[in-house]
Amino acid sequence: MRRRFSFIAAILLCLTAVLAGCGTKDAESVVKDLDKTLSSLDSYTGKGEMTLYTGQQPLVYQVEVSYQKPQYYRIALTNAKKDITQIVLRNDEGVFVLTPRLNKVFRFQSDWPANQGQVYLYQTLVQSILLDNSRQFAVDNDAYVFDVMANYQNGSLARQKIWLNKSDYAPNKVEVSDANNAVMVSVKFDSFKFGSKLEKSVFDTQKNMGTPAAGGDQATMASPDNDSNASNANNGANSENAAATTDNSSNAAAQDNANQADNAATNSNADNADNAGNKNGDNPDNNASTNEDNSSGDTSDSSAVTDDSTSASADSTFTGMDAMYLPEGVSEQDSQNIVFGGNPGIMIRYTGTYDYTLIETQPKDVAVSSTKGDLVDMGFTYGSVSGDDQQRTLTWTYEGTEFRITSGTDNLPVDEMVKVAQSVQGEMSK
């Protein structure tokens, strides 16, 4: 009798093992299936929550993703607390970054997302699994888990764990870590559906902008052949500034004047702008002027950078935000209130291992802009990196404030620019 019970127990254990293994595949089988899934991918939609751990406090955003073959994308990032949504579109007209609440449209000449991965795009996640021959594989309840190398713009992101549902390989969760295995970005999908039937309007720029701004102003896109950059969005909205803006003006050039304050021999007008709060108060023309193109002698928007005396708006309640991260060997040199593009703002200069300038403004004007800058995924928003052989500028908009970090091309690297940008939070302490 005892042998019979032992025999029955052994059979039950075997059956349990077999049943537990049903529906579970090995890494090689899953990889082959993922390759087929990616090849036959027509469309998908997903919703979830993204958390960034790059600052002092975690930042949480709602994410919505839509894809339609062959190259239509829509990504909406919403700050739940501030109720501000930024949308990235790719359609037949190009790549656009929209902020409907501010009626702002930036158009990019970019191969996005082919030239850079996105943690919430299915193609990016699957490609990282397929390309990493040293991938690690595990089974976690109803999900297959891959631990693979991360391939993102931010070089500090080293590895990522990807949870895929066993049933259809839809993403469940993603965790991206740095070299010290600290999670820097996480995405948890609440829903993800393949084969979604998407109307063309989902990827239409004007449709995504929604209701025109008060007064009937309708966002319209400038030609991508124009050499202007994102910062000219404000200037273009002012008729007084438009006449002074040259065809070859750019955000990087405008920023040059602020940054060249460190280089007195380069541009005396920039020096006037930097010292506007202390001297030359009786000459607002000098304080207001900046030089966009030294080689041609053309002058830029006369209100690009001015002192408090040139505009009453400089005395408004605009409050800048601190950059909580400083590269090693860098300290703040000085800061001053300015008027940039006709709007009040603050300019902060940093010096040391790297020399760079941070300008913050809060534009009131409704405008659109086209830029030839490279699209940069900053996690919490999208920015634009533009510039020439002399300097580089990172521009982004967040919660109604426009930010610009400018440095020489052989100085502050782009990844350091992004780190500084991600750390800009909280009101100025001074």
Automatic annotation (TrEMBL):
Cleavable signal peptide: 1-20
Q: Does the keyword Heme apply?
A: no
Keywords annotated in UniProt: Lipoprotein, Signal
**What InterPro entries would the database entry show?**
LolA/LolB/LppX (IPR029046), Sporulation_related (IPR052944)
Q: Where is this region: Disordered?
A: 208-316
Low complexity bias spans: 222-316
SUPFAM superfamilies in the record? Prokaryotic lipoproteins and lipoprotein localization factors
PANTHER family, per database record = SPORULATION PROTEIN YDCC
What is the protein named? Outer membrane lipoprotein carrier protein LolA
Species name: Paenibacillus rhizovicinus
